[in-house]
Amino acid sequence: MKPTIAAGQLDATSPRTRAQRRPRLRNLRSRLLLLMSVIGPGIITANVDNDAGGITTYSVAGAHFGYQLLWMMPLVAVALIIVQEMSARLGVVTGKGLGDLIRESMGVRATAVVLGILMFANLANTVSEFAGVAASMEIFGVSKFIAVPIAAVGVWLLVVKGDYKSVERVFLIASAIYLTYVISGILARPVWSDVVKAAVSPNFSFDPDYVVLAITIVGTTIAPWMQFYQQASIADKGIKPADYAYERLDVIVGSLFAVFVAAFITIACAATLYANGLRIETAGDAAIALGPLAGENASILFALGLLNASVFSAAILPLSTAYVVCEAFGLDLGVSRDFKDAPAFFGIYTAFIVLGAGIILLPVKSLVQAMLASQTLNGVLLPIILVVMLRLINDKRLMGKYVNSRAGNIVSWLMVGALIVLTAILVIVSVFPPAD
User: Fold this and answer.
1) Residue closest to 305 by CA, chosen among 328, 287, 318, 332
2) Residue 87 dihedral angles phi and psi, to the nearest 5°
3) Nearest to residue 132, comparing CAs of 315, 301, 337, 284?
4) Alpha carbons 365 and 380: distance in angstroms, whole number
5) Please, is 119 exposed, middle or buried when counting C-beta atoms within 10 Å of its C-beta (0-12, 13-18, 19+)?
6) Per-residue pLDDT, 108
7) In 3D, which of 283, 310, 368, 303 has the Cα closest to residue 59?
8) How high does pLDDT run on average in the chain?
């Protein structure tokens, strides 16, 4: 016997009900398609910051201090979201890159100084990415003289021969590969109750190494080049103010995922290396040391994650530099253009890849000082960039209704003030390291 349907009610399978659902499903489908078309710059920018230097920082944090620094991850996630959201909003509303806006607000001379610092820091970081390629492939028995040139040619061909959509698709796949670190963390079999406790319970220490590492985590998570790259890629992609809500979601998801991965890198090393009293200097050391402690699979996944991060970043950092230089001087730019249409853009990109890869192939004993110098310069540049961004984001003529709210300004200035203090300390200890 069929159930009776009360007056005014509709059967879920009735033609009228299906007709009512159809517009809602179409609306949902169109929103999802719009989200998929917008998503990319936020996720890519946040994840590429987990580069060879970042992975080394998180690995050392776990190996030397166990879970003690995990409490910083939620705070870093909030700071990253705030900064990247402002960058995204500037790009969406103005349709311009940050280099372009800085030139308009600060003038050519000041822009040239900022560019000089950024270019040196980006070159040193590009060298470190190719060092990451060399270190990860040496774990698999492949010489750097084979691995580095192949990686360099690969990332060059990807950007120079591809268009924006194809390049972004590859970058999004590279972002997904960071999940190897999550799997490595699980294979390390941490005590999850200890992990959760450490993540929600601040553990302060005045140990100089602890303080420096804590500040370095902040510095490696929020770097100056990120603001330039994300805003430039948003402008290049042509995202409009009507799509701002989707781009904001892109930023939030990307930032949370990047910090989630960073936490699992720390967890993997804490559960194995710290638990066994092993200390490391690089992410490559961590990958090798994980083998006997967490199994060969964990070691392989960690090394593959380092390779992916290094190649990914070796493509993005030169691209970020090319964007900002061309923006600052009003030159033609864009991944979808041909080399002949944007020679300066692709020329800068090519030069940075050749220099970054070439330096690694030279018989140089150590590049540590150059890497440290790049981090110091990042620390000098970051406060300047953040203050300029806050000035721009509050310019009503530029941003219209998209300016910061009063509450947003209070939170943003407090966060920027804290970052300025932390980066100042990092610069001081980099120039004048504490005595042993």
Assistant:
1) 287
2) -60, -45
3) 284
4) 27
5) middle
6) 82
7) 283
8) 83
Please indicate, yes or no, if residue 402 is contained in any of the structural domains: yes
Q: Which domain holds residue 225?
A: 38-431
Instruction: Determine the Cα–Cα distance for residues 106 and 114; give it in Å rounded to an integer.
Output: 10
Residue showing tokens 């822009």: 111
Dihedrals φ, ψ of 424, to 5°?
-65, -45
Q: Say if residues 159 and 349 touch (Cβ distance below 8 Å).
A: yes
0.70 surpassed by pTM: yes
Q: Give the per-residue pLDDT at 25.
A: 59
**CA pseudo-torsion sign 307, 350, 221, 279:** positive
d(CA 55, CA 302): 10
DSSP 339: T
Q: What tokens appear for 229 in the block?
A: 């790259």
Angle at 233 between CA 283 and CA 121, to 5 degrees: 45
Is 53 in contact with 283 (CB distance < 8 Å)?
no
Average pLDDT over residues 397-417: 88
Residue 32 lies in a domain: no
d(CA 27, CA 39): 18
Asked if residue 313 lies in contact with residue 129, where contact means CB atoms within 8 angstroms, the answer is: yes
250 lies in some domain: yes
Total count of domains within the chain: 1
* Residue range 92-114, pLDDT digits in tens: 999 998 988 988 888 888 888 88
Q: Distance between CA atoms of 245 and 4, rounded to whole angstroms?
A: 45
Residue with tokens 């530099």: 321
CATH classification at residue 416: 1.20.1740.10
The torsion defined by the Cα of 90, 96, 101 and 103, in degrees rounded to 10, comes to 160
Return d(Cα 133, Cα 135) in angstroms, integer: 6
Secondary structure of residue 345 in the 3-state scheme = helix
pLDDT more than 70, % of the chain:
86
Helix axes 224-237, 72-94, angle to 10 degrees: 40
Distance of CA 12 to the CA centre of its chain: 47
Instruction: Spell out where 250-367 has E strands.
Output: none
Alpha helices, DSSP H only, in 140-282? 144-161, 164-176, 179-187, 192-200, 208-221, 224-237, 244-272
Q: Would you state the pLDDT for residue 16?
A: 54
Q: Does residue 30 form part of some domain?
A: no
pLDDT of residue 281: 75
158 has a pLDDT exceeding 70: yes
Question: pLDDT (tens digit, 9 = 90+) per residue, 67-79?
Answer: 999 999 999 999 8
Query: What value does the CA radius of gyration of the chain take, rounded to a whole number of Å?
Result: 23
Model pLDDT, residue 275: 87
What DSSP character marks residue 402? G
